[in-house]
Amino acid sequence: MSVSAKIRAAIENSSWIRRMFEEGAELKARLGADQVYDFSLGNPHLEPPPGFKEELAAAVAETAPGLHSYMPNAGLVSTREALAGHLRELHGLPFTAQDLVLTCGAAGGLNVILKAILDPGDEVVIFAPFFPEYFFYADNHGGLAVVVETDEAFQPDLARVEAALTPRTRAVLLNSPNNPTGAIYPGAALAELGRLLAEHSRRRGRPVYLVADEPYRRLVYDGAELPSIFAPYDDTILATSFSKDLSIPGERLGYVAVSPRAAGRAEVAGALVLANRILGFVNAPALMQRVVARLAGVSADLAPYAHNRDLLAHVLREAGYDFHLPQGAFYFFPKAPGGDDVAFVQRLKEERILGVPGRGFGRAGYFRLAFCVHPRVIEGAAPGFARAGQAMG
After folding, report:
1. What is the CATH number of the domain that holds 320?
2. Are strands 254-258 and 100-103 parallel, antiparallel or unpaired?
3. Are 20 and 342 in contact (CB under 8 A)?
4. Which residues pair with 210 in a beta bridge?
5. Does the N terminus or the C terminus of the chain have fewer Cβ atoms within 10 A?
6. Distance, CA of 140 to CA of 78 (rounded, Å)
7. Residue 312: C-alpha distances to residues 84, 303, 309, 381 (Å)
8. What is the CATH number of the domain that holds 195?
9. Do 177 and 231 have their domain in common?
10. Domain count for the chain
């Protein structure tokens, strides 16, 4: 056997998202990219804002020595100071540069967090539907992902959360706006979750961390407001990235922020710094750090996503699909006509439409569509959605 048994098993159970993306690549190679309607991957189609390109050009033109050298594992102080200032304005808490660690995207940030806080056998509670890589991230660091179902509207069920908390619970990981559903968790639910975690932490004598995965924070619709994740609970750690709001996912830059109210705040931040190094990240990309330092609070024009959401909602509604209108992010998670999500996604493929079965996100009977695409993809897919829905419904 050329690879470990553990990795072999992981390959066999790997992400449906990538599987469908790869099937789509084969289909595009055979039929032509313009003949395939690909909703499989949350890969932003928007270009970065003009300010990003201007700052990138300026950063490349700088000639001071050491600009591309190693740096503190936490990242450039100037960048962390700029981002801490942004967080102070956004959340009304006294963040400093010492509370932040620059990471290789939000995914790198989540791995840094879990490396820093988990002991072998510790549990990480996640909400279904979920981003499937969470299982791998917990396992990477000796942890176990414990799944808690949300309700029919994809909102947290606090009674189920309370029942899932055990002496081994070390973190509750949430993602709002949510991938794959587009749901936003309201402030009242977060406040109750904070109360549950505070009580559980007090009884067990060690903190349960609320870990927030927030790369979609700025992607909200209809005037929705995303409540501060730091408001309801002291022991909160944020992981986020610039992939979605600046539309630079390939640049792999994000950061982790520890709440200024967290117990052992300095120790937690120090553990994150060490984890960033010993996981082999060492530090986040130097050039991108210098660029985003000047762009705190800036985002691409996200209006096209709102247009796409409304356009795809119209297509799905006309074809008779059952779905919740996403409040944020750039995903629909409709019910699969006929109930079998894998069979339905295969039927969509016959129409040259690529989606992802819901069971890959922990909820069979649904399927995910990423609408961060050109509008012509949605328009071109409309007849196929209608035919597939009629055939399987």
Report:
1. 3.90.1150.10
2. antiparallel
3. no
4. 172, 236
5. N
6. 31
7. 37, 14, 5, 10
8. 3.40.640.10
9. yes
10. 2
The answer to whether the beta carbons of residues 355 and 289 sit under 8 Å apart is: no
- Residues 356, 207: one domain? no
Exposure string (b/e) for 261-275, b if CB count within 10 Å is 16 or more?
A: ebeebeebbbbbbeb
Q: Residue 223 in contact with residue 66, Cβ under 8 Å? A: no
| Domain boundary residue, one of 292, 309, 337 | 292
Return the residue matching tokens 């328009």.
379
pLDDT tens digits, 283-329 = 999 999 999 999 998 999 999 999 999 999 999 999 999 999 999 99
Instruction: Report the length, in residues, of the chain.
Output: 393
> What's the domain range around 277?
51-292
DSSP 213-260: E-TTTT-B-TT--PPPTTSS-SSEEEEEESTTTSS-GGG--EEEEE-T
Name the strand (E) or helix (H) holding 307. Answer: helix 303-318
Distance from CA of residue 127 to its chain's centroid? 13
Residues 307 and 272 in one domain: no
User: pLDDT digit string (tens) for 168-227?
Assistant: 999 999 999 999 999 999 999 999 999 999 999 999 999 999 999 999 999 999 999 899
